[in-house]
Write a structure and sequence with these properties.
The complex is a heterodimer of chains A (about 230) and B (about 70).
Chain A: H1 4-28, H2 43-69, H3 75-105, H4 114-133, H5 140-153, H6 156-167, E1 176-177, E2 180-181, H7 185-226
Antiparallel strand pairs in A: 1-2
Helix pairs in contact in A: 1-7, 2-3, 2-5, 2-7, 3-4, 3-5, 3-7, 4-5, 4-6
Chain B: H1 3-46
The chains are: A mainly alpha (about 230), B mainly alpha (about 70).
Chain lengths: ~230, ~70
């Protein structure tokens, strides 16, 4: 019978296949960018990782909202794991973006770029979530505090996402406009495969980490009962 | 550094972080496995299993029906 645990190996296998496919497409199929050269290929992992970080923060905020509204068991843990994933992908976004900026424009960081600074603010906001979580005793009070904090952070996601369009700076040229993606069909296809790969990878890691955390909680309860 | 080296560095960082994450999860699983073993031993000490050849007292009594 199909259960939630069956999803983990299936997701992990799909993530592995999609990551291999996207690497093959990036390095052996799509042409080099005429303007930026080979360093433009960072785009195919950098942007999907950034979008996945937004998705993880959004998922964490949704679970936090559900925790406050309906109080389903485990929503607090799910919110925490999603935010943890978001911080990992957020760190990767900052690192890969910084390398790309250095390769293409000769700077590691530009404080004048609203997009970069807003993403850093979002990343630091959710990094502080862990300071809050681990400074309060486990229990309903901690779950409620963390849920409210996670919900506040979600406001920053659309601001950070739209900043790229509002700022119009030299670091982030707008690729996706109302006229569609401003790139060749092969490039857009590769971008979609890479995004699917990163999203599937994030989903697999989310379920693996969540299963570990649930097992940890069950073992702690069992140990307390036996003590 | 050349453009190709920057590209390699960006992709290597991603794979290094994912590998480190998987290593941490693997170490956590080893710890959980050890804890399961400890809890199983604790449970066995509290409620020892019957020795081979000896039977436990039946939990339900036989009753006549009909």
């Amino acid at each position: 019978m199909w259960s939630r645990n069956n999803a983990v190996p299936a997701l992990a296998a799909a993530a592995g296949l999609l990551v291999c496919a996207s690497i093959a497409l990036i390095f052996f199929w799509i042409p080099e960018d005429a303007d930026q050269g080979i360093s433009q290929k960072i785009f195919y992992f950098h942007v999907p990782i950034a979008l996945t970080a937004y998705a993880c923060f959004g998922w964490g905020a949704l679970k936090a909202f559900l925790h406050l509204w309906r109080r389903p068991p485990g929503a607090d843990l799910e919110s925490y794991v999603a935010i943890h994933q978001g911080v990992i992908f957020g760190a990767l976004t900052l690192i890969t973006g910084s390398i790309w900026a250095r390769a293409s424009w000769g700077v590691w960081w530009a404080w004048s770029s609203e997009q970069l600074v807003l993403f850093l603010v979002l990343f630091l906001f959710y990094s502080a979530y862990f300071m809050l979580r681990f400074s309060v005793e486990p229990g309903p009070a901690r779950a409620n505090l963390c849920a409210v904090y996670a919900l506040f952070g979600v406001v920053l996601i659309p601001i950070s996402f739209l900043a790229i369009r509002l700022a119009n700076d030299f670091i982030h040229p707008t690729v996706f406009t109302s006229q569609g993606p401003q790139m060749a069909g092969s490039m857009f296809f590769t971008f979609c495969v890479a995004w699917a790969a990163i999203l599937t990878l994030a989903a697999a890691l989310y379920h693996i980490e969540l299963a570990g955390k649930r097992l940890d909680v069950s073992l702690r309860e069992l140990r307390e009962r036996l003590a | 550094m050349t453009q190709g080296q920057y590209l390699a560095a960006a992709y290597l960082v991603v794979f290094a972080v994912v590998l480190a994450y998987m290593l941490i999860i693997g170490l956590k699983l080893v710890r959980l496995q050890r804890e399961v073993g400890q809890i199983a031993r604790l449970a066995a000490e509290r409620d020892p299993a019957p020795e081979a050849g000896t039977e436990r007292a039946p939990e339900r009594q036989e009753i006549g029906v009909g």
